[in-house]
Amino acid sequence: MRKQSLAGAVGLAILSLISCGGSRSGERAATSESTSPATRIFVTNESSGDVTIVDPVKLEVIGRIQVGKRPRGIRASADGKTVYVALSGSPSAPPGVDESTLPPPDKSADGVGIIDATQNKLVKTIHAGSDPEDFAVSSDGKTLFVSNEDAALMTLVDIDSGKTIDSFQVGEEPEGVRLTPDGKFVYVTSEGTGTITVFNIADHKIAAKIKVGHRPRGIAFLPDGSRAFITNENDGTVSEIDTATHQVTRTIELGQAGQIKPMGTTFSPDGKTLYVSTGRGHKVFMIDPIAGTVKGSFEVGKRPWGIGVSPDGKTLFAADGPSNELVVIDLNTQAVTKRIRVGDSPWGVLVLKP
């Protein structure tokens, strides 16, 4: 629109299998802290209600965690020990669907799931307003800023207590939420109004509302925070925003509107390349963020959405919803090297670094 004795090792393996709800044929249960790879890929699967964990070196599934209904947005704490997942009891309603024909929402399923990433298990779920889709985590790790898609709100939630701190109107169908690199502002996209809401964390006020393109989805910032990049799904473009003036400084065209549908974003580790997935456009585009030019693109799958890059900048991982796969791309050759079966309708990708 988330050295032990042989007997001890066996016991730990059993506990891991229980905490992950078992494993599918041909995959191992989620590993413990002592045996987990240094970097792991977490994938939210919207239709199967779980999170798949992938070893990025062996390129195989190492665990699966049941988390709840419609897991979508996924983020990690600064220390990498906790993973947060947005959950929603509202039925999926793609564009063009007659919502009157859908079942009623299950509000008891709305929340943010909290995963202990050292044990790879869901430890609790906290309330986070109605129909959470995405969120950001404050720099101090104490607060979640959550987009509530069906309520046109951003809700602030205290992580420790699980209590709502405040909520703000941000525009219709809010989706993408990102914290600026300096930790002072939160940006929220609103698909229905075509705007970006800029929230000042220090004074708890809306600092600006910026008009961008049609159906904005993802947000990415230059490492120095001077520019924000917003994907406009229905325009086939990316808007660049000067974060000091809250003004759109240029629009980068990726392709024909309606065919190329910009969605997810991620930067290369060196900040020199912005990667943009394009949903039903099947491709991921590479943008030079300084020049504002397209450097190229490559085919990924049927509908790539969430994307992430390995810490060494050599590999891109893309969630391809219709194929139920995590697609692995060698960025040197821009070729797909593997497709890994994850859950049903993979949505978000988190590259969890130690």
Task: Tell me the CATH superfamily of the domain at 67-95 and 105-211.
Answer: YVTN repeat-like/Quinoprotein amine dehydrogenase
Q: Provide mean pLDDT, rounded.
A: 90
Number of strand elements: 28
Please tell me the CATH architecture of the domain at 67-95 and 105-211 by its name. Answer: 7 Propeller
What percent of residues are in strands? Answer: over 45%
Q: Please tell me how large the radius of gyration is.
A: 19 Å
> Percent range for helical residues?
under 10%
Calculate the terminal CA-CA distance, rounded to whole Å: 31 Å
CATH class of the domain at 67-95 and 105-211, named: Mainly Beta
CATH topology title of the domain at 67-95 and 105-211 = Methylamine Dehydrogenase, Chain H
What order do the SSEs take from the amino end to the carboxyl end, as H and E?
HEEEEEEEEEEEEEEEEEEEEEEEEEEEE
Q: Which terms would index this structure?
A:
354 residues; mainly beta; Methylamine Dehydrogenase, Chain H; 1 helix; globular; disordered N terminus
Give a description of the structure:
The protein has 354 residues and is mainly beta. It has a domain at 67-95 and 105-211: 7 Propeller (Methylamine Dehydrogenase, Chain H), CATH 2.130.10. The chain has one helix and 28 strands. The strands form seven sheets. It has a four-stranded antiparallel β-sheet with strand order 3-2-1-28, with no helix packed on it. The protein has a four-stranded antiparallel β-sheet with strand order 4-5-6-7, with no helix packed on it. It is globular, with a radius of gyration of 19 Å. The model is unreliable at 1-35 (pLDDT under 50).
